[in-house]
Design brief:
The protein is mainly beta and 388 residues long. The chain has 2 domains: 108 residues, Jelly Rolls, CATH 2.60.120.380; 192 residues, Alpha-Beta Barrel (TIM Barrel), CATH 3.20.20.140. It is built from 5 helices and 24 strands. The strands form 4 sheets. A 13-stranded mixed beta sheet has the order 15-14-13-12-11-10-9-16-17-24-23-20-21. Strands 1-8-3-6 form a 4-stranded antiparallel beta sheet. β20 and β21 form a beta hairpin.
Length: 388
Amino acid sequence: MRIEGRWTLDDRLERMLREVPFEVPPGTRSLTVELRYDRSRGVLDLGCGSPRGFRGWSGGARERYTITEEWATPGYLPGEIEPGVWQVWLRLHRVPPEGIAYELEIVTSGGMPEAPAVPDPEPAERPPRRDIPGIDGMRWWAGDFHTHTVHSDGVLTVAELAELARSRGLDFLAVTDHNTVSHHAELGAAGGITLIPGQEVTTDRGHANVFGDVGWVDFRQPADRWMERGLASINHPLGADCAWLLPLRERPRVAEVWHASWWDRRWGAPLAWADAWRDDVVAIGGSDFHRPGDDGLPGTPTTWVLAEDPGGVLDGVRAGRTAVSAGPGAPLLVRLGDELLALDADGLVLVRPGGARQVVRGDRVLVKAGDGPHRLETYENEVMALCG
């Protein structure tokens, strides 16, 4: 079947997400949806709903998806193709004043197309771990809380991303594809690194990561509802057209203070934002990795979490036991009880709460810790490491 129409700017302002209904007959085992429009004139995001609810989302990354009983296009959930009224979800992300025409082609079938082949990645060698003392049966684990795969707008499979992250020396990785959880089913298969289920709940007025196996988080609901689902962070709050603009009754404590877009870390706005957000912010970092060559690699920046094992890092974040560095091998500042360990930080400046400063002399230095956040800077005030 074909459905044609035109969206206007008035349509977008009235209601951004539109559900275009279509009928799925009994006996259907697969369906394919293709969206056509002039991408030079605007952006229409694509998703799918069935009689039982959410079935997938790919945003602006795809113009075509297939859902079958046994497999689905990344970003979409396989399973029974129940008969009844389904919807093509279209988010009117960018619509010019003169409007934008679109066409949908929907094909249903009683047959089962063969699943595309997905090759296994080449195993990668993990570099040695850094020598950081443990404390109270816990140790500092290195990871990244913001990455993407082919299940949204990334280019690597989950397995390829896991191998890349492991080769970078990371112990854990949160996989946070946009507005979908289809990647969660693949996370347990990766070896040598702990993959944390996540979802980047994505709107045009702000993004937030929700971590844990908590099911799909509905981006159409108010942001307060997202925060109720699990441990959540505010993503890249100063990130250009992705800056945080949504109202909240209660501000979450966890925030992606260090995002890969902080390209000039002499610019203190992310730290100023964190201070203004709330006085007990737990700082984490995220590379927001999508594809090699376009973004920082996984672990750029690296978030360090003090936990018993990598599977416990979310509890470590809840407890505020975090530190952030520019990369897995970059200068590091971590808390060891009532002391701070400055690692590979010779010549950098330790900045204490309240602004007191001292020069670090040596590559492995212990200094007394105070209450509150500390950081390492260069003599030019470039931030090199954060410690909660």
